[in-house]
Amino acid sequence: MSHSNADGGALPSYLEVSGRRTGILGWILSTDHKRIGILYMSLILGFFLVALCIGLLMRLELLLPGPTIVQPNTYNALFTLHGVIMIFLFIVPGIPAMFGNFFLPIQIGAKDVSFPRLNLASWWLYAIGAIMALLSLFTGGGVPDTGWTFYVPFSLRTGTNVPLAVLAVFVMGFSSILTGLNFITTIHRLRAPGMSWFRMPLFVWSLYATAWIQILATPILGITVLLVFLERLFGIGLFDPAKGGDPLLYQHLFWIYSHPAVYIMILPAMGVISEIFPTFAKQKIFGYKAIAFSSLAIAFVGYLVWGHHMFTSGISDTSRWIFSLLTFIVAVPSGIKVFNWVATLYKGAIEVPPPMLFALSFIFLFSIGGLTGFVVGALATDIHIHDTYFVVAHFHYVMFGGVGIAIFAALLYWFPKMFGRMFRYRPFFISWVFIFVGFNTLYFPMFIMGWLGMPRRYYDYMPEFQIWHQISTVGSWLLATGVFIFFIYFVKSLRAPRGAPDNPWGGTTLEWRVPSPPPAENFIEIPTVTAGPYDHHGEGDA
Amino acid sequence: MEKKELVPYGTYIMIWFGLLVLTGVTIIAASLHFGQWSIMTAIAIATVKGALVLFIFMNLKREERLFKIMLSLALITMTVIMVLTFADISFR
Ligand code: HEM
Ligand SMILES: [Cu+2]
Q1: Nearest CA residue ID for atom 14, ligand 1
Q2: In a domain, A327, yes or no
Q3: Does a structural domain hold residue A74?
Q4: Helix (H, G, I), strand (E, B), or coil: what is residue A252?
Q5: Preceding peptide of A504 cis, ω within 30°
Q6: How many Cα atoms sit within 13 Å of A505 on the Cβ side?
C-alpha cells in the first residue's frame, strides 16, 4: 500500500519498506528511525503494563493490615521491581526513545538521525539491559529488595541479586547516553535549509535539552552502580565506613544522576504538551522563546538540586539550605511553561478530542505534583514527611500524572501519523474518565496518610491508616481499568482501515506535511523552511 | 565544517602516549600523599587528559562556536556539581 505525496509521487511507507531483510528481522535490524521508534514502543509499553500489574499487587496487599497476599520480603521485592521497571525501562527511555526517534528527524526536515546504526545499537542495548534485569529475578539470590535506589549499605549486604540488576542499569544507561548523543548531533547537523534554531518545534527543543542531560548525567549513574558492583565483588571500600568509605557519597552520586533524570522524564513530556496545545487551540504557542529557553534553564538548574533527596541523611546544614534554595529556583522555569500553555489557550478555538483531553489533564495533575514539590523541597516540611506516602503521592503525580499522561496524549496525537489509521474517540473518552478519577482516588489519599505519618516501603500499617489505604486500593482498580481500556482500543485501532488523512488535527509542524504513515526516507525532497513552527494563519512553509 | 583536513595519525598516537604518561603521573602523584591536595592534583591531571581527548581526538578544535559554548556550559555544570559535593563534606 502506498500514499501519494503532495508532490504527486507515490512512495511506499516505512511500514512496507523493511530494508535488506524482511519479517521480524526487517524490524529488529532496521536502521530507520521510525521503525526503531516503534521497536522501543512495543517494549516500553509492554514493560509499563507489567509494572502496572505489580503496582496493583502492592495495592492489593495494602487493602488490609497484616499479610494479605504476600509476605514482607516479597513486598520488598515487588516495590523494587515496580520501581526499577517504571523508572529505567519505562519512563526514562519513554518519550525520547519512542516519539523522539520517530518524530525528531521529521520535525526538523531530515531523512534520519545522524547515526542510524548507533541508534539501532541503542535499542539493542536497551533490550539487552532489559533481559539482564529479567534474568536478575531468577538467578543469584533472587529478586533484588533494595528499592530502585540501590542505597548502600543495604545494597552491599543483601543476599539478593543486586549485582546483575545494577549491571542491567549500567547497560541501559549506555542506551540512553547514545540516544542523547545521536539527538544532539542530529539537531546541530541535519536541520533542513531554513530550519533555524528558533523555527524548531518546541518538542525538538525539549529533546535537545534532555539529550544534554542524558549525555552528562547518565555516565555518573553508570559509574556509581559499577562501583556498587565492584564493592560487592572485591570489597573496595568506597562506600563502607568500616573501610574508610562514605555511604553518603553513594547518595550524592546516585542523586546527581537521578534528580536530573526526572528532567529526562518531564522535559520531553512538556515538549509533547507544547505541540498539542497550539494544534488544538488553533493558535500560535504563547511565548515560544520563553518555553524553549526554560527547557535549557531546567536542564541546567536541575543539575544543582539533588541534595533535596538527602535532607535527613546527615549532610551538612550548609548544603541543606543551599539545596533547598536551589530547588525553589528550579520551579520558576516550570512555572513559566505552565503559564505559557494556559496563555496559548486564551481566546483560542479550542477543540478537545482525546489527545487534547489527556494534554489538559497533564496540566492539572502535573501542577499538583509540581506544587507539592515545594512541600517536599522546603527543608522544614520535608523533615516531617521524608520517606512517607506524601513523597509517593508527589512523585506519582509528577511521573504518572505528568509524564505518563503525556505519553497517553502523545500516543493518541501521533497515532494517525505513525500508523496511518484513525481511532474512534469514544473508547478513549471512557478510558480517560476511569484514568482521571482512578488516578486521583489512588494517589490523593497518599498525600493525606503521608502527612499523618504513614511511612513508605512498608507492607503493613497501623489501623488509623486503613481507610486511606482502602480508598487508594479501590482507586488502583479504577485506574487500571482505564489503562486497560486505553490499550485494548489502542491495539484494536491498529487494525482499523488505513486511510488517516495526512493532517487530521490541523497541525502546523513538518510531520503533518508528509503522508500518514511517512515514507521510508520521510521526504521526497528535503523541504525548505520559511516560517516558524506554529503558524496557523500565514501560508508559511512550516 | 567545510574544509576538513584530517589530523595526521602521528598526532593521534602522540596524544595517546601523552594520555598514558599522564595516567602514570596520576598514579605516582596518588602515592606521594599530598594530603588535601591529592584530589585536586588528580582532578587537574584528569582535566588536561579530558581536554586533549575533546580538542584533538574529538576534533572540537574546529567545531562551530555554538557547540563550543554548549560544551563549556556542560563543563561548568560538572564543576559546580563537584564543588557542591565537596562543599558538603567540608561543612559536615
Ligand atoms: C496503576 C499504577 C500504579 C500503582 C498502583 C502504583 C503503586 C505503587 C505503590 C503501592 C508503591 C509502593 C509505595 C511504598 O510501599 O513505598 C509504588 C512505588 C513506586 N512507584 Fe508506582 N504505581 C503505579 C504507577 C507508577 C508509575 C507510572 C511510575 C513511574 C513512571 C511509578 C513509579 C514508582 C516508583 C519509582 C516507586 C518507588 C519504588 C521504591 O520505593 O523503590 N509507579 N507505586
Ligand atoms: Cu529531586
Answers
A1: A457
A2: yes
A3: yes
A4: helix
A5: no
A6: 30
pLDDT digits (tens, 9 = 90+) for A272-292: 999 999 999 999 999 999 999
Could you say which of B64, B81, B88 has the minimum Cβ distance to residue A319?
Answer: B88
Chain B residues in contact with A305 (beta carbon < 8 A): none
User: What CATH number does the domain containing A226 carry?
Assistant: 1.20.210.10
A12 in any annotated domain: no
Q: Which three cell numbers stand for residue A458?
A: 512498608
A 10 A CB-CB count for B71 gives 15
A429-458 per-position pLDDT tens digit: 999 999 999 999 999 999 999 999 999 999
| Alpha-carbon distance values, A516 to A2, A419, A420 (Å) | 10, 7, 5
Residue closest via CA to ligand 1's atom 20 equals A83
Cα A455 from Cα A387, distance rounded (Å): 6
Ligand nearest to the CA of A53: 1
Round to whole Å and give the CA distance between A355 and B56. Answer: 48
Q: What is the pLDDT of residues A452-507, one digit of tens each?
A: 999 999 999 999 999 999 999 999 999 999 999 999 999 999 999 988 999 999 99
Number of separate domains in chain A: 1
Does residue A6 sit within a domain?
no
The C-alpha cell 500553555 sits at: A341
Range of the domain at A61: 28-513
Do residues A390 and A455 make contact, with C-beta atoms less than 8 angstroms apart? no
Put simply, whether B88 touches A (Cβ < 8 Å) is yes
